[in-house]
């Protein structure tokens, strides 16, 4: 099994990736809404 230090490093990487995914999803939603608004206008 992995050392506790390795596990903490993997958890930190995973948490960073999840945070980036959430941020990216928000940015994409804003861009999509802006494009829809521009097309509808």
UniProtKB/TrEMBL annotation:
<dbReference type="InterPro" id="IPR012422">
    <property type="entry name" value="Cyt_c_oxidase_su4_bac-aa3"/>
</dbReference>
<keyword id="KW-0812">Transmembrane</keyword>
<dbReference type="InterPro" id="IPR036596">
    <property type="entry name" value="Cyt-C_aa3_sf"/>
</dbReference>
<protein>
    <submittedName>
        <fullName>Aa3-type cytochrome c oxidase subunit IV</fullName>
    </submittedName>
</protein>
<keyword id="KW-0472">Membrane</keyword>
<keyword id="KW-1133">Transmembrane helix</keyword>
<feature type="transmembrane region" description="Helical">
    <location>
        <begin position="21"/>
        <end position="40"/>
    </location>
</feature>
<feature type="domain" description="Cytochrome c oxidase subunit IV bacterial aa3 type">
    <location>
        <begin position="6"/>
        <end position="34"/>
    </location>
</feature>
<dbReference type="Pfam" id="PF07835">
    <property type="entry name" value="COX4_pro_2"/>
</dbReference>
């Amino acid at each position: 099994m992995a050392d506790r230090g390795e596990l903490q490093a993997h958890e930190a990487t995973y948490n960073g990736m999840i945070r980036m995914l959430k941020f990216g999803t928000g940015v994409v939603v804003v861009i999509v809404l802006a494009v829809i608004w521009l097309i509808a206008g």
